[in-house]
Design brief:
Number of strands: 27
Helix content: 25-40%
Shape: globular
Structural class: alpha/beta
Strand content: 15-25%
Bound molecules: 1-O-phosphono-alpha-D-glucopyranose, zinc ion
Largest sheet: 7 strands, mixed
Distance between the termini: 51 Å
CATH topology of the largest domain: Alpha-D-Glucose-1,6-Bisphosphate, Chain A, domain 3
Low-confidence stretches: none
CATH architecture of the largest domain: 3-Layer(aba) Sandwich
Number of domains: 3
CATH superfamily of the largest domain: Alpha-D-Glucose-1,6-Bisphosphate, subunit A, domain 3
C-alpha cells in the first residue's frame, strides 16, 4: 500500500454541489489531484469495508485514466468489489440504475455533464449514495472539509491495470473488478417501464423519428434500445458514436446547442418526433414536427398521460417540480387530486420525496425529467415515455401539446440567462429587487396585481431540513411569476437567471410566441431589477 503525501486542495475554494467537482482536464491531471478528491470521498461516506462500488462515466477525455486510479484506490481502501461499465461507460441514469440493482454502497460517476470535453476542456467526478442519487449536502460538505486538510491517500504500491474493453471479472489485490455491459441493466429497466410492443409497432409504421446523442454517452444506449430492441431505422439515430471530445460540441440539448437536430425538425422533410440528450445522458429535449415542447410542459404532459405506460398504469403518487419550473404540472396534479411539491433547483431535492413515495414524477425547466425508477433525471427515459404516449394516442406531438393546453390552460414560459456577469453586479441586482419587496406587495405591475414577493425557502417534508435563499419570487394574483435566481453551476463570474411565466386559459390566445406573450413581464422585470443597467448588458446571453 502506498501512502502518498502532498497538499493540493482539490476544490481550490470551489465548494462542490451535488454535481461534484468540475475542473479543466489539466487540473485533474496534476499528480495527486484526482486521488485527493477520491480519498476525501472515501473518508466521508462511512464504513464500506467489504462493499461494492460502481464506477463509470460519460466517455469523455481522461475517463479511462481516472477509472484505473479509482480502481486501485478502491482496492487499497477496502472495497470488496467494483462494478465498472465496459470501456468505462455508464450514463448517469444507468449508473443510478446499477447502484440500486446490485445493492452497491455507492458510485463514482465521471462526467462534467454537458460541458465540452477534450484535453483542454472539462472533466468532473461526483459521488452517488446507495439509493442511486446524488450525495446529500451533509456528505458533500464532509468531502469538502476533508479536502481542506488531506495529506495522504491510499493506493496499491504496484498499480494494477484492468482491461476495461472486455466484460470479465478480475482481481485487483483483495478486490474483484467486474467489467459489466454498460447498457443491459438499464435497457432491461426501460423495458419493464414502457410498452415496447406499442412503440415497436409505431416505429414500424410510417412514423419517423430522429434521436441525437450529440456524440456523447447515450449513443450506445440509443443503439441497443431504440434500434435493436424497438426497431428504429439506422438513419433515425444521429451522432451516436461517443467521442472523447464529443466531436468538439457542447452536448446540451436545447434550442441553441442541439442546432443540428433543431434544423432537421424544423426543416422541409421533418420527421414526426425529435429528441436529444446531453453529455452524461440525464437531460432531454423533446421536439415535434416544427414544434418545441418546453421541459415544463413535458413534465405536465407526462403526468397527465402517465397511465399510458405500464409502469405508471395504476397512477402516480405525486409530482415534484423545482420552483422556477412552470406551474403547468401543478394544474395536472390538481385535476388528478395529487400533491405537487415545489422544491429548490437541483435534482437532489427530489430524493427524499421519491424515497418516501410522496412523488413518482419529477422535473426541472432545465431539460431534466425523471421518475422514481432511478434517483437521477433520465434523458432516454423521457424519450421512451414520449414514444409510449405517441404510440398509444396516435396523435402528433403538436396535437398532444395543444390539446393539453386546451384542457389545462397554457403556462407561457421562458428563461433568460445573463452569463458571466461580475459577481458584484449580480448581487446588486438581487439586493435591488429585495429592497422593493414591501413597496411591490399589492401593487400593479404589467397590468397585474402582485400578490407577494419573497426569497424562496424550502422545508423538506421528510427530514425537515431547511434551504433558504433559493431565488426571488414575484408572484402575481393571476398566476404569473417573475423569478430572479443566481446559478449555482456557473464557472465564470455569476450567472443571473430570469424566469418568466404567465398563464393563459383562453384557447384563442394560446398560440402566441412565448417571448411575445411574456413581453410585458420582460419589461416589468427590468423596471424592478435594473438588471441590464447593473450588468451593463442589453440582452440575455441565452434565451430558452
Ligand atoms: C442548472 C439548472 C438546474 C440543474 C443543474 C444541474 O443549475 O438550472 O435546474 O439541476 O443545472 O444540472 P443552475 O446553474 O441554475 O444552478
Ligand atoms: Zn447532464
Amino acid at each position: 500500500m502506498n501512502i502518498n503525501t502532498q497538499a493540493t486542495t482539490p476544490f481550490e475554494g470551489q465548494k462542490p454541489g451535488t454535481s461534484g467537482l468540475r475542473k479543466k482536464v489539466k487540473v485533474f491531471q496534476q499528480p495527486g489531484y484526482l486521488e485527493n478528491f477520491v480519498q476525501s470521498v472515501f473518508d466521508s461516506i462511512g464504513d464500506f469495508q467489504g462493499q461494492t462500488l460502481v464506477v463509470g462515466g460519460d466517455g469523455r477525455f481522461f475517463n479511462p485514466e481516472a477509472i484505473q486510479i479509482i480502481i486501485n484506490m478502491a482496492a487499497a481502501n477496502g472495497f470488496a468489489r467494483v462494478l465498472v461499465g465496459q470501456n468505462g461507460i455508464l450514463s448517469t441514469p444507468a449508473a443510478s440504475c446499477v447502484i440500486r440493482k446490485y445493492g452497491a454502497f455507492g458510485g463514482l460517476i465521471l462526467s462534467a455533464s454537458h460541458n465540452p470535453a477534450g484535453p483542454d476542456e472539462d472533466f468532473g467526478i461526483k459521488y452517488n449514495i446507495a439509493n442511486g442519487g446524488p450525495a446529500p449536502e451533509k456528505i458533500t460538505d464532509a468531502i469538502y472539509a476533508k479536502t481542506e486538510n488531506i495529506n495522504a491517500y491510499k493506493t496499491l504500491a504496484t498499480p494494477i491495470h484492468v482491461d476495461l474493453s472486455q466484460q470479465a471479472i478480475s482481481q485487483v489485490a483483495e478486490m474483484s473488478v467486474e467489467v459489466i455491459d454498460s447498457v443491459s441493466d438499464y435497457a432491461e429497466l426501460m423495458q419493464s417501464l414502457f410498452d415496447f410492443d406499442a412503440i415497436r409497432t409505431l416505429l414500424a409504421s410510417d412514423f419517423r423519428m430522429c434521436f441525437d446523442a450529440m456524440h456523447a454517452v447515450t449513443g450506445p444506449y440509443a443503439k441497443v434500445i431504440l434500434q435493436d430492441m424497438l426497431g428504429a431505422s439506422t438513419d433515425s439515430l444521429i451522432n451516436c458514436t461517443p467521442l472523447e471530445d464529443f466531436g468538439g460540441g457542447h452536448p446540451d440539448p436545447n434550442l441553441t446547442y442541439a442546432k443540428e437536430l433543431v434544423d432537421i425538425l424544423y426543416g422541409e422533410h421533418a420527421p414526426d418526433f425529435g429528441a436529444a440528450s446531453d453529455g452524461d445522458g440525464d437531460r432531454n429535449m423533446i421536439l415535434g414536427k416544427h414544434f418545441f415542447v418546453t421541459p415544463s410542459d413535458s413534465l405536465a404532459i407526462l403526468a397527465a398521460n402517465a397511465k399510458t405506460a405500464p409502469a405508471y398504469k395504476a397512477g402516480i403518487a405525486g409530482i415534484a417540480r423545482s420552483m422556477p419550473t412552470s406551474g403547468a404540472a401543478d394544474r395536472v396534479a390538481d385535476a388528478l387530486g395529487l400533491d405537487c411539491y415545489e422544491t429548490p433547483t437541483g435534482w437532489k431535492f427530489f430524493g427524499n420525496l421519491m424515497d418516501s413515495d410522496k412523488v413518482t414524477l419529477c422535473g426541472e425547466e432545465s431539460f431534466g425529467t425523471g421518475s422514481n425508477h432511478v434517483r437521477e433525471k433520465d434523458g432516454l427515459w423521457a424519450v421512451l415515455f414520449w414514444l409510449n404516449i405517441l404510440a398509444v394516442r396516435g396523435q402528433s406531438v403538436e396535437n398532444i401539446v395543444t390539446e393539453h393546453w386546451k384542457k389545462f390552460g397554457r403556462n407561457y414560459y421562458s428563461r433568460h440567462d445573463y452569463e458571466a456577469v461580475p459577481t458584484d453586479a449580480a448581487n446588486q441586482v438581487m439586493e435591488h429587487v429585495r429592497g422593493q419587496f414591501k413597496s411591490l406587495q399589492g401593487s400593479i405591475l404589467a397590468g397585474r396585481k402582485i400578490q407577494t414577493c419573497d426569497d424562496f425557502s424550502y422545508t423538506d417534508p421528510v427530514d425537515q431540513s431547511v434551504s433558504n435563499n433559493q431565488g426571488i419570487r414575484i408572484l402575481f394574483e393571476d398566476g404569473s411569476r417573475i423569478i430572479f435566481r443566481l446559478s449555482g453551476t456557473g464557472t465564470q463570474g455569476a450567472t443571473i437567471r430570469l424566469y418568466l411565466e404567465s398563464y393563459e386559459g383562453d384557447v384563442s390566445k394560446q398560440g402566441m410566441d412565448a417571448q411575445d406573450a411574456l413581453a410585458d413581464l420582460i419589461i416589468a422585470s427590468e423596471s424592478i431589477s435594473k438588471l441590464q443597467h447593473f450588468t451593463n448588458r442589453s440582452k440575455p446571453t441565452v434565451i430558452t
